[in-house]
Amino acid sequence: MAKQNIDRKFAVIFATDVVGYSNHMESDESETIHNLRECESILTKLFSKYDGRMFNTGGDSFLAEFQSAVSAVECAVEFQSSIEKRNSSEATSVKLQFRVGINSGDVVKEKDNLLGDGVNIASRLEALATPGGVCLSKTIYDLVAQKTDLIFNQLVHQKVKNTYLNSYTLNIEAVSYTHLRA
Asked: What is the pTM of this model?
């Protein structure tokens, strides 16, 4: 059987996952799923607003691609802000928190999905983020630091699953949301 050519492209990858999802599911499966779908709706609208495309999900995780690093980071900031606002409402029965990781790199296109190191590293960065936080690769930081008013904190050289990463966290508490797209 002949090998097919691998279809590659460069993309900015946004990876997010719910913090403590299994515990939420054990406590109240129905309400957790209901609240996850509400959060997914927020995320889907923001992907559309910032020209992102969701290419994969895995229960409580969502992967999207962007053509712009600035758009991906601004989307992440607005998403975390929207989730924080949602969680502050007494009407919210299950207060879900998310971590976000953003990376850019060469990826493999397979149907509507993206695979490869660019995606894997974004997922590893997501795991480094604090609950409600955003963690960026150095590549993303270099692309956005001078183009935004955002404040970043450099993490020490991190080893995650046999991969060494230079990464930055976004200081979301210091963000002024007025600079984001209306």
From this structure: 0.90
Q: Find, among 15, 63, 18, 24, the residue nearest to 39 by Cα.
A: 18
Instruction: Give the C-alpha separation, 6 to 145, whole Å.
Output: 33
Question: How many CA atoms, within 13 angstroms, populate the side-chain half-sphere of residue 146?
Answer: 3
Task: List own/partner pairs for 137-141 with CB under 8 A and 24 or more apart.
Answer: 137/102, 137/103, 137/104, 137/165, 137/166, 137/167, 138/165, 138/166, 138/167, 138/168, 139/103, 139/104, 139/105, 140/12, 140/69, 140/72, 140/73, 140/102, 140/103, 140/104, 140/168, 141/167, 141/168
CA 126, CA 103: separation in Å to the nearest integer? 10
pLDDT at 180 over 90: no
Q: Classify residue 179 by its DSSP letter.
A: G
Angle (nearest 5°) at CA 109 between 105 and 111:
155
